[in-house]
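Our working data are protein records whose layout never changes between entries. Getting from the letters to the tokens is the skill we practise here. To make this concrete, we reproduce a full record directly below:
***
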Amino acid sequence: MSHRTAASRVLDVLGAFGPDHRALSLSEIGRRAGLSLSTTHRLVGELSAWGGLERGEDGRFSIGLRLLELSALAPRGLGLREIAFPHLDDLHRATSGNVHLGVLDGHEVVYVEALRSRRSAPVSSRVGDRWPLHATGTGTVLLAHADPADVDEVLARPLGRYTTRTQVDPCLLRVRLAQVRRDGVAILRGELTDGALAVAVPVHDRHGGVAAALSLVVHDDGSGPGELPALLTAVAARIRRALEAAGHGRPTGPVVGNTPVRPVERPLRVG
């Protein structure tokens, strides 16, 4: 392993952690990072002293608060989350649905915010989770606005099927992406979670690009999305205005006013 730099080994240690591996023993870190126990012991010790890792009472290690502090400096991470949160919270309260804010990272969407509902469709989503682009509302929106070369690369890869309704045909997915660009909204039914209806829209930045995708996931009662696309579009416009204000930019197109988000008129059937 002499060709691996010290920095790459540190990254390997941090990369051993994930949504399904939030707390690890020293040996588990070494095994997942592909490092010897002695090297793992030294790096984990250095990271713990710096605050990048924390050791629990059971002796297992987890990500430390120092990394949370650094992540707050990322404009597409906690910075975006902080600006958008009041509007996401309004949407969550108005719909009692699962609200997600995601950004594109490679071939996946990463949730920078996830507000889960106890009353709506049961979904497994947390801040920092990574999900496939083709089977999620946020991912579909981000892929629809991605560089064509990146779209080609994503659709050329094996596409996972998560339910019987997951669309994995590249040709049909291209048709869907074109519809999303035309209509400004993605609507997916049960493609990642059975019985769930996902509605997603883009969140534009102050330059007119797509900074993130906003989605709402509710129980699919078969009646269609109703007023949800318009509601999400209004909330996304408010987030855009907040981004413009934070960046001291000027609006680059029409935006929605500051009318409070009201509860949807048609009660949502929840599971």
